[in-house]
Write a structure and sequence with these properties.
Elements: H1 10-22, E1 37-40, E2 43-46, E3 64-68, E4 73-76, H2 82-95, E5 100-104, H3 110-113, H4 116-121, E6 125-129, H5 132-136, H6 139-151, E7 167-169, E8 173-177, E9 180-186, E10 196-200, E11 205-213, H7 225-235, E12 242-247, H8 254-277, H9 282-288, H10 300-319
Parallel strand pairs: 4-5, 5-6, 6-7, 11-12
Antiparallel strand pairs: 1-2, 2-3, 3-4, 8-9, 9-10, 10-11
Length: 320
């Protein structure tokens, strides 16, 4: 990483980030290993690998969940390839014959949405934040899909397409589906501008998307970490018994896991912010930082340096 005191051009920053995402995996999954875990009376989820996407794991690196309501199934996120979405449907059908009526999208990152076309073809209504439209119409989405078609073949290929939502939301919304109440709350700009979280008060379950990376280092990317921290503070106010995060195992220690992600982001901002204020070169700032609390977390080596560099650039911009 070269030393800079001014932000990289957007295209170069994008290419650097795509390079990280396309790098070899740090852990290999057994293709096809998917089993739904029950975490509440009406709620199940499937857990992706703590790895980068690869043909070996079919891009099964994120979580998806589903809620069995009185008359249908509501899915939260659609996984990282059409093949995985088909497997998720099989898991759902193993538990209930009820149709999938809705897919709620936490955000439009590739590992959460490349399976959407499968649920769309099955007749589900897709619900997402309106700012997802900006991503779908941006070069970022097109470039990401082009890279994925090469790096994740044959699981992501020319037949894989980006799918728009049927219902776009831009404010807090409550939906009752099959007698189950879903509290839908915008949480961006945080991990992405279009972040949504979903809370089930009857089950005390929070679907936090990528605002919470349990047991692994988050991918910060181009995130607005200041607002992300504020969003995590808001999530701490829910009466949550179970968190289903976007990555990693589910949690019954909501406060601890929300706090870990928040503290990681806060440390990035503190360490890189001080360097940016003092006009200290990034390489020196990175070497001086104390990463001991986080360095044993999965994907630390794959993600932390890029997270720190993007935060360094963000703090330069906030200083100006």
């Amino acid at each position: 990483m070269t030393t800079h005191h001014s932000p990289l051009p957007g295209a170069l920053r994008l290419l650097l980030w795509l390079w990280v995402l396309a790098a070899p995996t740090v852990a290999m999954a057994q293709a096809g290993s998917m089993a739904a875990q029950r975490v509440a009376d009406k709620v199940w989820f499937v857990q992706g690998e703590s790895a980068l996407g690869s043909p070996a794991n079919q891009n099964f690196i994120s979580n998806a969940a589903f809620v069995v309501t009185g008359d249908s199934v509501v899915v939260i996120d659609a996984l990282g390839s059409p093949a995985l979405a088909h497997k998720l449907l099989q898991e759902i059908r193993r538990i209930t014959p009820k149709p999938v009526s809705h897919v709620l999208v936490t955000h439009y990152h590739a590992d959460h949405i490349y399976g959407l076309q499968v649920f769309k073809e099955a007749g589900a209504v897709i619900v997402a934040h309106r700012l997802g439209l900006e991503y779908l119409n941006a070069d970022t989405a097109r470039l990401r899909l082009e890279v994925s078609r090469k790096e994740l073949a044959p699981w992501v290929d020319e037949k894989t397409r980006l799918v728009s939502a049927d219902q776009w939301l831009d404010q807090p919304t409550d939906m009752t589906i099959g007698g189950v109440q879903f509290q839908i709350r915008p949480a961006g700009p945080s991990h992405t501008p279009e972040d949504l979280v979903f809370y089930l008060p009857g089950e005390r379950v929070l679907f936090a998307g990528d605002l919470v990376f349990r047991g692994r280092v988050p991918f910060v990317g181009q995130a607005d970490s200041k607002h992300w921290i504020a969003a995590l503070d808001q999530l701490l106010r829910f009466d949550t018994h179970v968190i289903v995060p976007g990555h990693g195992p589910h949690s019954t220690q909501a406060k601890d896991d929300l706090t870990l992600t928040r503290d990681y982001l806060a440390y990035l901002r503190r360490a890189m912010g001080e360097a940016a204020r003092n006009l200290e070169p990034f390489d020196e700032a990175y070497r001086k930082a104390d990463w001991s609390r986080f360095e044993k977390l999965p994907l630390f080596n794959a993600a932390n340096r890029m997270n720190a560099y993007n935060t360094y650039l963000l703090m330069e911009q906030e200083r100006e």
